[in-house]
Amino acid sequence: MPPFESEWRIQDEDDEVELDEQSYSTQKDAILFCIEITPGVLEPRVLESGEQGPSALETIFQAAADLQKRKIVHGPGDAVGIMLYNTSETKGEIVKPHMYLYQHISQVNAPDIQKLLHLLNEADENPDCFPTLFSPTDQPVTMANVFLTCSHVLRDGVPKAASKRIFFFTDNDDPELGDETKTKAARKNVEDLYDLGINIHPFFMVQPGQPFDIHKFYLNVLSNPKEEMTDTVLNVHKSMQKLLDNMRMNEAIKRTLFNIPMQFGEGLTIGVKAYGLVTEQRKGSYRYFSNMGKSMEEAFPKTVYVDEEQEREVPKESIVFGYQFGTGAPEATEEDGDAMQVDAPVVKDKVFYTLEEMKAFRSFGIQPSIKILGFKDIETIPFDANVKHSIFIHPNEAAVTGSNRTFKALLDSMLKKQKYALTRCLFRKNSSLIFCAMIPQAEVLEDGIVDEPAGFHLIPLPFADDIRQPTIERSAHCSPELRKAAVAVIERMKYGPGYIPYQYHNPGLELHYGFLQAEAFGEEYNPEEDFNDTTAPRFQAIHKRAGEQMGAWHEALNEDPEAAEMAVEPKAGTKRKTGAVDELVVRAHFDDDILNKLTVEQLKTYLKAHSQPYSGRKNDLIERVHDWCATHPA
């Protein structure tokens, strides 16, 4: 049986908005680095070049510093802490003996990061810095106490964090030496962590000549019964670089967009969670501050509804929604005489609805859910039949018992028969009903690790009103010689690996974050030296590879008769395009700080004219126009 509606994570706002993954960035994330100190962790590692490199502990500390530097810009409300165990020295009020709480878990801040960077600089000059400060003990701590202390550190440091995670590092595959009593105690404390919503991400390190066997201790202790997959537990790293790469993958918290039921038919319902795999990364939203003399106090926006005639504030609960239809009945004239005395039908020019009625119009009284309507061959869906990016769904065993098995059975059957499901979807109480194509995705493994998880992609399908036909115009044609010359240029310019998004960072965001980090740490920032735009064309390499072919193409272009034709000049006095907005008008609104007075259409038109993104809500559009005007003065 499905749980009560209150147990589903169903969002409900007053205004209809699209699913926006950016709003989830306000949820606080807490990460505790838990590191076991062993002689192998403190020993310098030999690099692939044969030279002596930093120790594993120094590499982990450097990764922790880099993570905090990224979070101070991307997630300034997040918290990070560092705890070590099996140390000869004990530090921290709430830790057990032989535990060292190097950095209390707290909101990321510049002083903590600078302290960590100072330690790393000292370790570069003095290789004995880490072994001296964090020397190992000959009295190891029980793993039950380690996990219990992690719980206490997270509880006292960040009690209100939405997500709590432990990054667990060790090269010791049997810390309890086969003691069943200690193993059961550790298992019990790990289950308590999972019950509290604290996730453990283990990073197992392999020492040269010492294989790491997870079956001795950690496979049984760290496996989560609520999670079907145990790949994170099976993750053993033979090199520090692979460990760091995996840590970067786990750095971003997996925030669910929604948690709603999926209906197969009458009486058969399972729970599913949804994730946004791709979303536009934007700059962090700025805040408003007021100079109060001695300090700068944050100013919070407040929306107030005012009666235009009486000029008084109207309570929000008394607001209704109205629509205008024409001008209503015509006004009476003297010539009408007594004709107006006869009863006549009243023509309304306005209709009003309450908030509940407006929500019912959008959702037709249907509760948020995903309902499967039928199945079709997967090759019948057009590649362009979508209106926004897809949503990835995964079973939620915590909502309905048996969701994993039912979900997997459906997935395997659809993959085998090459079908997709047509679904009716309502993701939020206040959103509009849409139809989606539910396309199956098989699990893909790479080196024994899940690269693409098994699940379904929900692709929103267009209605008839959403489909637009392109303007059919005669395309330009060229001679075979010009086409052949262009093909030669393209062949020389081909990039074998193709476009790999992970290799290219948004240059606008990178430059913005570079300035913010420099300001936070009091450092100098020179974009010409410190900023590397990986998306900038490499002109020297381009001309070296295809310069000769480009010259041949240019000569062929000059000889092509159609290319020599002059474009027809537009007639004078051509009517201005609908929705066009004057640059001076926008600049005037920007100077007066009243960009919110412009309409959404005007904002979008202005952004289009300057080749800027123009999707999203009005506040997002205003912010982009403001940023453009601020960085491009007239």
From TrEMBL:
<dbReference type="GO" id="GO:0043564">
    <property type="term" value="C:Ku70:Ku80 complex"/>
</dbReference>
<keyword id="KW-0547">Nucleotide-binding</keyword>
<keyword id="KW-0347">Helicase</keyword>
<dbReference type="Pfam" id="PF02735">
    <property type="entry name" value="Ku"/>
</dbReference>
<dbReference type="InterPro" id="IPR016194">
    <property type="entry name" value="SPOC-like_C_dom_sf"/>
</dbReference>
<dbReference type="InterPro" id="IPR006164">
    <property type="entry name" value="DNA_bd_Ku70/Ku80"/>
</dbReference>
<dbReference type="InterPro" id="IPR005160">
    <property type="entry name" value="Ku_C"/>
</dbReference>
<dbReference type="InterPro" id="IPR036465">
    <property type="entry name" value="vWFA_dom_sf"/>
</dbReference>
<keyword id="KW-0779">Telomere</keyword>
<dbReference type="GO" id="GO:0006310">
    <property type="term" value="P:DNA recombination"/>
</dbReference>
<dbReference type="InterPro" id="IPR005161">
    <property type="entry name" value="Ku_N"/>
</dbReference>
<dbReference type="GO" id="GO:0003690">
    <property type="term" value="F:double-stranded DNA binding"/>
</dbReference>
<dbReference type="InterPro" id="IPR027388">
    <property type="entry name" value="Ku70_bridge/pillars_dom_sf"/>
</dbReference>
<dbReference type="GO" id="GO:0006303">
    <property type="term" value="P:double-strand break repair via nonhomologous end joining"/>
</dbReference>
<dbReference type="Pfam" id="PF02037">
    <property type="entry name" value="SAP"/>
</dbReference>
<dbReference type="Pfam" id="PF03731">
    <property type="entry name" value="Ku_N"/>
</dbReference>
<keyword id="KW-0233">DNA recombination</keyword>
<dbReference type="InterPro" id="IPR003034">
    <property type="entry name" value="SAP_dom"/>
</dbReference>
<dbReference type="InterPro" id="IPR047087">
    <property type="entry name" value="KU70_core_dom"/>
</dbReference>
<dbReference type="InterPro" id="IPR036361">
    <property type="entry name" value="SAP_dom_sf"/>
</dbReference>
<keyword id="KW-0158">Chromosome</keyword>
<dbReference type="GO" id="GO:0003678">
    <property type="term" value="F:DNA helicase activity"/>
</dbReference>
<dbReference type="GO" id="GO:0005524">
    <property type="term" value="F:ATP binding"/>
</dbReference>
<dbReference type="GO" id="GO:0000781">
    <property type="term" value="C:chromosome, telomeric region"/>
</dbReference>
<dbReference type="GO" id="GO:0003684">
    <property type="term" value="F:damaged DNA binding"/>
</dbReference>
<protein>
    <recommendedName>
        <fullName>ATP-dependent DNA helicase II subunit 1</fullName>
        <ecNumber>3.6.4.12</ecNumber>
    </recommendedName>
</protein>
<comment type="similarity">
    <text>Belongs to the ku70 family.</text>
</comment>
<keyword id="KW-0067">ATP-binding</keyword>
<keyword id="KW-0378">Hydrolase</keyword>
<keyword id="KW-0238">DNA-binding</keyword>
<keyword id="KW-0539">Nucleus</keyword>
<dbReference type="InterPro" id="IPR006165">
    <property type="entry name" value="Ku70"/>
</dbReference>
<dbReference type="GO" id="GO:0000723">
    <property type="term" value="P:telomere maintenance"/>
</dbReference>
<keyword id="KW-0227">DNA damage</keyword>
<dbReference type="GO" id="GO:0042162">
    <property type="term" value="F:telomeric DNA binding"/>
</dbReference>
<dbReference type="GO" id="GO:0016787">
    <property type="term" value="F:hydrolase activity"/>
</dbReference>
<keyword id="KW-0234">DNA repair</keyword>
<feature type="domain" description="SAP">
    <location>
        <begin position="595"/>
        <end position="629"/>
    </location>
</feature>
<dbReference type="Pfam" id="PF03730">
    <property type="entry name" value="Ku_C"/>
</dbReference>
